[in-house]
Design brief:
six-stranded mixed β-sheet; binds fe (ii) ion; alpha/beta; Purple Acid Phosphatase, chain A, domain 2
Length: 250
């Protein structure tokens, strides 16, 4: 059954970045061999070319199919251009047909701004890609940096997508299964109808809130249920959510 690793907010180049944390995460991911690894942005801290080179060399070490989208930090200092040069397209799809998965990655960043926006052309493209995934009977995963629904315990709401309502409408109409994001460095899970909105923490930085630890998520899609597991830097795990699988076997 499908098995997904969801990492976010590496913040390579920040003084809060801890190389050892990232090496441990990469080793662990390579050990558990997910069917796909999804990285929801802020891979760098300032979008600098040298930070991207370092990020690309780490991401290359992940031995699974991988999809990476940029975050607000990645789009600083024309980092959005560097992203396309050293990582890949800022938005695009990744199909893992063998495991029945399709990941649709969106670029929600705006150059040198912290807030997020997907925009109408990407929204229309996403709707089309979700429709195609349905026709192929694939599990539909959206990956973007900014959260669409506010995340609790993160203080004043600032950087929710400016077009969150429009994007949410397409997601609900087209019945996306998982919506993965980062940005707030606070793991969280929201369920709306049959769509799960999952936020990952920061995988390799100490930009943390309260007593949270650096972490990443793994998602097990079983025939009867879906389980989201929070994997903390101290080696402990916590079930972030477990819910009935109503998607597969329809
Ligand atoms: Fe971040
Ligand atoms: Fe961010």
């Amino acid at each position: 059954m499908p098995f997904i690793a969801h990492l976010s907010d590496l913040h390579i180049g920040s003084i809060s970045f801890v190389e050892e944390l990232l090496i441990n995460v990469i080793d662990y991911v390579n050990e558990i061999k997910p069917n796909v690894t999804i990285v929801t942005g802020d891979i760098t801290d300032n979008g600098y070319y040298l930070e991207y080179k370092e990020a690309a060399s780490y991401l290359d070490q992940i031995k699974t199919p991988i999809l990476v989208v940029p975050g607000n930090h990645d789009s600083r200092h024309i980092g959005d251009e560097v992203f396309e040069e050293l990582i890949k397209n800022r938005y695009g799809t990744l199909k893992v047909k063998k495991h029945g998965l399709k990941v649709i990655g969106l670029d929600s960043s705006e150059p040198d701004l912290d807030y997020g926006r997907v925009g109408r052309s990407q929204q229309n493209w996403m709707a089309e890609e979700l429709k195609k995934a349905d026709e192929e009977n694939l599990y539909k995963i959206i990956a973007l940096h900014h959260h669409i629904i506010p995340v609790p315990r993160t203080g004043r709401e600032r950087n929710v997508l400016t077009d969150a309502g429009d994007i949410l409408q397409t997601i609900m109409e087209r019945k996306a299964d998982l919506i993965l994001s980062g940005h707030k460095h606070m793991p969280h899970f929201w369920m709306m109808e049959n769509s799960a909105f999952i936020t990952a923490g920061t995988a390799s930085s100490l930009k943390l809130r309260g007593r949270e630890l650096s972490s990443f998520n793994t998602i097990n899609i079983e025939e009867d249920f879906i389980e989201i597991v929070l994997n903390r830097a101290d080696g402990t795990q916590r079930c972030l959510a477990k819910y009935e699988n109503t998607c597969l076997g329809d």
